Structure formats: structure tokens, C-alpha cells
Amino acid sequence: MKKLETIDGETLMSKPLQPLNFVVDTLISQGLHILAGSPKVGKSWLALWLAVTVAKGEPVWGLPVKQGTTLYLCLEDSQLRIQNRLFDVTEDALPNVHFCTESRILGDGLVEQLEQFLGEHLDTVLVIIDTLQMIRNAGYDNTYANDYRDLSVLKKLADAHGIAILLIHHLRKEKADDVFNRISGTTAISGAVDASFTLVEEQRGSGRARLSCIGRDIEYRELELRRNADNVWEVTADSYQHPELLGDRIIFLLSELLCDCPKFIGTPTELAQRIDPDGKEGVTPKSVSRKILQSVAALNEMGITAVVRRSNGRRLIELHRADSAGNAGAGKIVPVDPVTV
């Protein structure tokens, strides 16, 4: 029997790791997601615009995206309908956004079809399946086990390829105190996905809706949306406070520190005090340690090497500027202060 492969907490807290990739910054990460809404609320319009916008590399509601190939399985539509909608949402669709109106179902060739597409388009970042019901066997039993099994297959596919898969789904008509409890199916659907999004219109036909977002790797947020004349959902309000700016600010402060002294060796507490002596920036030993461990590659691009190690029972952070080792300015990139842009 294969033994469990474990990692102790001390080693894990000193191990450089790649941060999670986001297709839409702070909103849609790699993994499996679900967007649920009432029939005809505008979910498919949103999905189409998202597929086109990410393929172009244009911001989604002001949020940076990871540009790449996108695939939209529009299984309830025809090519004519998709063409008509494309002319509404964009002046020009690029060849790296793909559409498909027919596919196999889960357990009968769909995963193999997606694997083949991903193998032929290695830069794929986003797959949208509209709708979840269309890729499931018509005779399946609506049980927790079946829901979790089907979604786990798609979750595994998304994780294996480092992409985002977005499933379009329906909400129940019944009202609920928690809108996420209205997602059709068992609780396994919400449990199996990395993030859930619900699109609820203020009033039928009003063109105004609330997008509620919750997930493992994103902060809870609510976006107020308005559907414009081109059937594009625009943001009118966003509850999110963008705390990720602190992470960018820490990188900037580290680069400033190493401009004055080419080397630093000390504890996370000592480093936090050096770059934020009066505490006005909100930098903590935990936040600076985490940011360094998850930004080793970004620091290297700026000519800064970073090592986290233990010595005499203490965790130490060791930073070196590249030109301090005789590589004057080699590969150094001057970071932009996020506070001043």
C-alpha cells in the first residue's frame, strides 16, 4: 500500500510556491466555477461576452485578464444565434475564441473531446459550458453522489490543465435567505466547485441585476450590473475593496529597501519593521512572508533573489539584489508603485 505523502508545517511555511493563476483577476481563478441564474436573465449573453473579452485580452469590468484561447460550448444555441449575438457584443471576434453547438455528454466522450481541444490549443485559459444540464445524461438521478461525481470530473480536468471551466446553470424559483441555496441540484454542486456566481435580476426585464460571488480563492463580493443597449453587462457598483494592492505594495517596498542596501538577512518581523517602520502600510510578518514565498519568480525578474530558511530555530528571510553579486543591474526591472498609479 502506498504511504501518505505529507509535508510538515515548518517546511510548508518555508517553501516557495506559485500563486494561483487568475483568468479574471480576483474573480475567476483556475478551477471549476458555476454561474447560475433564472431562465432568460442574460447568463448566456454574459458568458459570450466573457469568452470574447478574455480571448482579446481586454479587461473584464476593469479587472486584468489572462489572455488566451477560449472555448464556449453554447449547447442551447445555433450558429446563427451566436453570430447575431457576436455582432452585438463586439465589433470583431478573434480566431482564438471558439464556439461549439454540439458535444458529447459526461461519461460518454465529453472529457475526451475537451482533452483533444486542449491538446490542440495549449494556450487555452477558459472553457464555458452552457448549460450543465446539456452535458448530463437525461436519465440521471438527482443525488448528491451523482452531482459530486460529475462535477469532480470537470474539476480534475480544469486543475490538470491549469484552466478555468465555467458552468452555466439555473436557479430554483423558490426564494431563500442565502441566494446560493437557490442553485438547482444538491449541495454537492456548490461543494464541488471552486466558486459560485449567481445572477439575479432586480425585476424581470429591468436590465439590472446583482452578481453575487463566493469561492475558495476569492473574497465574497456583490457586483451591481446594468445591461446596456448591446446586451453587455456593465458594472455600476462593486463591494470589493481590492486588498491585493497590499501585496503589490510589499513588492515595491522590498525593491526600495534593496536600492539602499543590496542585502538583507533577518526575521519576517525585522523585515516588516524595515519596510514599514511606522505601521502605516499595514505590512505584517505574515503578509511579507507569504508574499515573498509566492513571488520568488517575480522578484527574480527584478533582479532580486529571495530565500526563506531556518537558522537556530528562527525563520529567516534572505534577500539579495543581483548587482550586489557583481551583476550590475542585470535583468533588473523597476517596479511601479501601485499606490501612485
Briefly say what this structure is.
By secondary structure, the chain is α/β, with parallel strands linked by helices. The protein contains ten helices and 14 strands. A hairpin with a 2-residue loop joins strand 13 and strand 14 (314-321).
- Give the proportion of residues in helices: 25-40%
Apparent shape: globular
pLDDT averaged over residues: 88
Q: How many β-strand stretches?
A: 14
Major pleated sheet: 9 strands, mixed
Coarse structural class = alpha/beta
Strand order of the largest sheet: 5-4-6-7-3-8-9-10-11
Rounded radius of gyration (Å): 23 Å
- Share of residues in strands: 15-25%
Give the topology string: H per helix, E per strand.
Answer: HEEEHEHEHEHEHEEEEHEHHHEE
Q: Number of helical segments?
A: 10
Distance between the termini: 56 Å
Uncertain residue segments: 324-341
